[in-house]
Specification:
alpha/beta, Rossmann fold, UDP-galactose 4-epimerase, domain 1, 7-stranded parallel sheet, 13 helices, disordered C terminus
Length: 303
């Protein structure tokens, strides 16, 4: 792809889009970020890094069309309903609107970031099934496209309420059970590689993960990173009874749907080094982990 061609990134003020925009910029590519508020701190940070801003709203198709002008490749990601900002139906509407605009505006290549549980049959959870709907719609259009399905983010483990300040960590897996995860950094880098090589990846659906870890792996790595004992345990049965959302996610892990389907050795051959849990804790995740160790909100949310 020509170095002069420009890429449009949706969700650029969020984790995924921000990582993709910065990875493209690091490759010397021209990047346009779709933002709702150009005065927000995250939007200003993008602009300061040399990323141009396209101001718009995902519920305003005309603003999406304007942002697409002169664009060669698009990275599409939408907020999911668990964030509390939109419904599953609205997520589907936005995903379709971006795909429609890319086709109508003559964009050469669309990369849609889905999810690891999508495209494998109904899950009974709207924020997974919505992504399956968007995937199917993107595939139905006469546009060069690639679908990427990231595993759970390592960053998600450091949300408040997991118990780290108390010397423990609670999560979905049993101690010996494995679950694939991906760092946001690797997600950004891989999607950027796909965007700049459309002919190589067109028509493909690629499961993404950086590493496969067990509960015991988390216990060992967190203990080493914290410099003190961190005991791992799965979410308690009482909590799962009280929280249907977490209970269903745990069921999907047990059935294998959320365990991850990425061929990690093949990804390493294709895209190079992938970040291990230990590397992430000592690198991009270090400050997040250190903050989570002392977060005084540890007793909320998942207690």
């Amino acid at each position: 792809m020509d170095q002069s061609e420009q890429f449009l990134v949706f969700g650029a003020t969020g984790q995924q889009g921000g990582a993709v925009a910065r990875a493209l910029k690091a490759k010397g590519r021209k990047v346009r970020a779709f933002v709702r508020d150009p005065e927000s701190g995250k939007a200003k940070a993008l602009a300061a890094e040399g990323i141009s801003l396209a101001i718009g709203d995902l519920f305003d198709p005309a603003s999406i069309d304007r942002a697409m002008a002169g664009i060669a490749g698009v990275f599409s990601v939408q907020t999911s309903s668990p964030a509390g900002e939109i419904t599953d139906e609205q997520e589907v509407w936005q995903g379709k609107a971006i795909a429609d605009s890319a086709l109508q505006q003559g964009v050469r290549h669309l990369v849609y970031s889905s999810g690891g549980a999508a495209g494998k049959g109904p899950t009974g959870m709207g924020h997974f099934d919505s992504k399956s709907q968007i995937e199917a719609y993107v595939r139905s259009l006469s546009i060069m496209s690639t679908i990427t399905r990231p595993a759970s983010f390592m960053e998600m483990m450091l949300l408040p309420g997991m118990g780290l300040p108390l010397g423990e960590f609670t999560f979905f897996m049993r101690p010996e059970q494995s679950m694939q995860m991906i760092t946001v950094y690797d997600l950004g880098r891989i999607n950027a590689e796909i965007l700049v090589a459309p002919d190589q990846y067109a028509g493909k659906t690629i499961e993404l993960a950086s590493a496969s870890v067990t509960g015991k792996d988390l216990q060992r790595a967190f203990t080493a990173a914290a410099g003190r004992a961190i005991a791992y345990r799965r979410f308690s049965d009482d909590l799962l009874v009280q929280n249907p959302f977490l209970s269903r996610l745990t069921e999907l892990l047990d059935t294998g749907l959320l365990a991850g389907a990425a061929d990690i050795p093949a990804l390493k051959r294709e895209f190079g080094h992938l970040t291990s849990l230990e590397e992430w804790l000592g690198g991009h995740g270090k400050l997040l982990f250190e903050a989570a160790l002392v977060d005084n909100k540890a007793e909320v949310a998942l207690r």
